[in-house]
Predict the 3D structure of the following.
Amino acid sequence: TSKKIKNSAHIFANEMQEGFLKNITMEQELRKAIKNNELFMVYQPQVDTQGNVFGVEALVRWNSTAFGKLVPPDQFIPLAEATGLMPKLGRLIFETACYDIAALEQELKRSLQISLNVSVRQFMDPLFLEDLLNILDKTDLHTLNITLEVTENLFIEELHYIVPLLEKIKSLGIQISMDDFGTGYSSLSMLRQLPIDELKIDKSFVYTIDKDETSAKMVQNIITIGKNLNMHILAEGVETQEQKELLTAFGCDRFQGYYFSKPLNKEALLAFLKSSAFY
Ligand code: C2E
Ligand code: CA
Ligand code: CA
Ligand code: CA
């Protein structure tokens, strides 16, 4: 047995080393990717109860030449967070999204709400707000048309720094959305302390509402709480008409998901908005 343990320890060490090496390579490649413009943004339409597109969520994509494929953001955003690359990557994401949408607004002569995902390290960067306001100024976008999607992870950090900053951000007209709502552990107490405009129900709940009564009841109660607190409720990951109808009956007022549209690059988004009867 001692030989077996030794062997498995050896395999484990090898696997750890492989994971470690893989991360180093990915980190180096990500640094290069930022320089070489391998990152781009896609935009997923967000619709109201009438089916009108009122906004888009900006989602980053990395088309890596080194790996020969699209690397999912679930993989490289955490890596950027861990390696100190995030404030820079976050700034690039905000800038690209704001330029893209400002150009589209000019072309379509209408405005859109732009939802931007904010990671913890990006938000905690001392230049976060200043950078964002500079980007809005350069692109002539209004603070009222910006929504920041924050997650519960943020609130593990120092609340005495975060709460006043969020309040300042909100006082400038920027909207705050609570992303992945219900998946963390401190959701309810956060709602009391924070200036939140929108609750975003995670797709893991939406996926099961028409299959499982417990999740249906949970979603129903989340919606009731949010509405009593005067928040918008946006359901993400809506894939079927049944889900949309159930969510509407529960009082959800905003929707996003493949049922309406997949995330689109800026050209495809322009075509989508031009061709939809209402936008
Ligand atoms: P998230 O913020 O919860 O984003 C929602 C994810 O659900 C996106 O995956 C979106 O493409 C996907 N999705 C939308 N509708 C549907 C649907 O109907 N069905 C299914 N199955 N999926 C749907 P994506 O783009 O792969 O992003 C994954 C996560 O990576 C995001 O989760 C977010 O946490 C992070 N992320 C993506 N872009 C950015 C970014 O620009 N900045 C930051 N900080 N994080 C980002
Ligand atoms: Ca999000
Ligand atoms: Ca300006
Ligand atoms: Ca989510």
